[in-house]
Write a structure and sequence with these properties.
The protein contains 17 helices and 8 strands. The protein has 318 residues and is an alpha/beta fold. It has 2 domains: 7-236, Aldolase class I (TIM Barrel), CATH 3.20.20.70; 245-313, Four Helix Bundle (Hemerythrin (Met), subunit A) (Up-down Bundle). Strand 3, helix 4 (59-72) and strand 4 (76-81) form a beta-alpha-beta unit. The longest helix has 17 residues, at 245-261.
């Protein structure tokens, strides 16, 4: 979810669900150690619970980055061993790490030693010509032996040669059954399934099969209200009524006002809100007004009002 789940996106999602665990976009350990930490790691306390996702392959560097992340207040530090982007391959991290389970074990052991936050790993079921039923158990055994107690498994292979990152999210076939098998093989390891899941009903089905959690990425981004609004009641028994889309927009107004007052651009926030009305009457008008106007200099809350008015004016199908 690089370039997607920034702090503005996470703040929006937290207005819809109070309980789901939110993840940052992946940040390299070098950037955490040497870069602008306020920009890279800053988050609103209202986003909690929130996890920091790191990229890297140097145990010492990752340990230092994990310590910094924990000191910033992140409740979980996640090592990404699943991203197939060219950028991460050239840096020897992301999905390419699945070729080196002992190195990943060294990394997570160092991270665990460095801080008290929970250390987790996100991975694929294999890479390139690997046999997932051979390599995934070895990978899980390696990270579990290093102290990891929770792993998020994207149920697709990553093809590091020949497929783009976008194609890697869609072309390799899903093998959710293998992830369920891994839970049975590693009963003491908390295994979270990811990949191709776009509804709460699907999520409930995976939990019923014994998995410990479900991560939803693209669907939660493109249709956040559809995916997140019912999560608190469905999985935590929270009796608080889910907010309407209009209530979510209202909750975002003070946040947007603060962002604008600090010199921010409206588009930085509203680009994450385009899918709020997905599948509802007026969704196209909502997206059009925000997409066309939020880039303009001086765009402010009046544009949000115009987008809402466009939704209200949209005809309802009979």
């Amino acid at each position: 979810m690089m370039d997607w789940t920034d702090r503005h996106c996470r703040y929006l999602h937290r207005q819809i669900s109070r309980r789901v665990l939110l993840y940052t976009e992946m940040v390299t350990e070098q950037a955490v150690r040497r870069g602008d930490r306020a920009r890279l790691l800053g988050f609103d306390p209202a986003e909690q619970p929130v996890a920091l996702q790191l990229g890297g392959s140097d145990p010492a560097g990752l340990a230092e980055a994990a310590r910094i992340g924990a000191a910033c207040g992140y409740v979980e530090i996640n090592l990404n061993a699943g991203c197939p982007s060219d950028r991460v391959q050239s840096g020897c991290f992301g999905a390419v790490l699945m070729k080196s389970p002992p190195l990943v074990a060294d990394c997570v052991a160092a991270m665990t030693e460095a801080c008290a936050a929970e250390i987790t790993v996100k991975c694929r079921i294999g890479v390139d010509a690997d046999d997932p039923r051979a390599v995934l158990p070895r990978f899980l055994e390696a990270v579990a032996s290093a102290g990891v107690r929770r792993v998020i498994v994207h149920a697709r292979k990553a093809w590091l040669d020949g497929l783009s990152p976008k194609e890697n999210r869609e072309i390799p076939p899903l093998d959710h059954a293998l992830v369920v098998e891994m839970k049975r093989a590693f009963p003491d390891l908390r295994i979270v399934v990811n990949g191709g899941i776009d509804s709460l009903s699907q999520a409930r089905g995976f939990l019923a099969l014994g998995l410990d959690g479900v991560m939803i990425g693209r669907a939660a981004y493109h249709a956040p209200h559809d995916v997140l609004a019912g999560a608190d009641a469905a999985f935590w028994g929270d009796p608080t009524p889910a907010p309407t889309r209009e209530a979510v927009v209202e909750r975002m107004r003070p946040y947007i006002a603060r962002h604008l007052a600090a010199g921010g651009r409206l588009h930085s926030v509203t680009r994450h809100m385009l899918g709020l009305y997905a599948g509802r009457p007026g969704a196209r008008s909502w997206r059009r007004v925000l997409s066309e106007g939020a880039h303009r200099a001086g765009a402010g809350l009046d544009l949000l009002d115009a987008a809402l008015a466009a939704v209200e004016a949209a005809p309802v199908a009979g």
